[in-house]
Write a structure and sequence with these properties.
By secondary structure, this protein is mostly helical. Helices cover 64% and strands 0% of the residues. It has ten helices and no strands. Helix 1 packs across helix 2, helix 4 packs parallel to helix 6 and helix 6 packs across helix 7. The longest helix is centred in the middle third of the chain and has 24 residues.
Length: 218
């Protein structure tokens, strides 16, 4: 039988991320993590002091996965890249959406991420007040969109069947605007809810560019 790798903080956090991916944050307990690793719960305390430290660590791991194109000279391209990466990462770890800004003891990856995004905005000429508005707006949009995608009751490829079944459950003419919207937009060939992400993101970036110009930026 092969020997297990030595227990470490990284292994504890990897196990916790796996549990969260499978069953949400509620599935992450000291006992469950220990069982996943094949050790006794008390062994974990040599590497993490308590469950809150595990949550701090797995949120930090999610932030570490989000790409930050720091060498991109175009601030719009950099923020666009970061937004797409965040959406992808949160699609894999939807449990993290509600925790991303909730930790009282953020880890180094979390702090580096925030510092880097502010650096992108600062180098583009955003005054710090406008940078704060921009960062808040972008995060609200990305987190909100990722949360909506995670909560959809059907797979993206099944939208036509799901919407058709949904409308068929109500009397004809009961919701005429909804029915027309579905017929003229949602049920058209090539429709994908995920495409809405780019449309909304570009609106935000356009607005921020206009505000930056109004503030005397480039």
């Amino acid at each position: 039988m092969p020997e297990h790798a030595p227990l470490s903080r990284d292994r504890v956090l990897q196990a916790a991320v796996g549990l969260a991916d499978e069953g949400g944050v509620a599935a992450v307990t000291m006992r469950a993590v220990a069982e996943r690793l094949g050790v006794k719960p008390m062994s974990l305390y040599h590497h993490v002091p308590h469950k809150e430290a595990i949550l701090d660590g797995i949120v930090d791991a999610v932030f570490a996965d989000i790409e930050l194109p720091l060498d991109e000279p175009d601030w719009r391209a950099a923020l666009r890249h970061r937004a797409h990466s965040a959406r992808t990462v949160l699609g894999r770890h939807s449990w993290a959406i509600a925790l991303m800004e909730s930790r009282a003891h953020p880890g180094p990856a979390t702090l580096h991420h925030h510092d880097a995004v502010l650096g992108i905005l600062s180098r583009a000429g955003f005054p710090y007040a406008l940078a704060g508005h921009a960062y808040s707006l972008l995060d609200s949009y990305v987190y909100g969109f990722a949360l909506t995608e995670a909560a959809l009751p059907f797979a993206p490829q099944d939208v036509e069947i799901a919407v058709g079944d949904y409308l068929a459950a109500f009397p004809v003419g009961a919701y005429p605007h909804l029915a027309e919207f579905a017929a003229q937009h949602v049920l058209q060939p090539g429709y994908a809810y995920g495409s809405e992400f780019d449309y909304g993101l570009e609106l935000i970036l356009d607005t921020l560019a206009a505000r930056l110009a109004g503030a005397g930026g480039p």
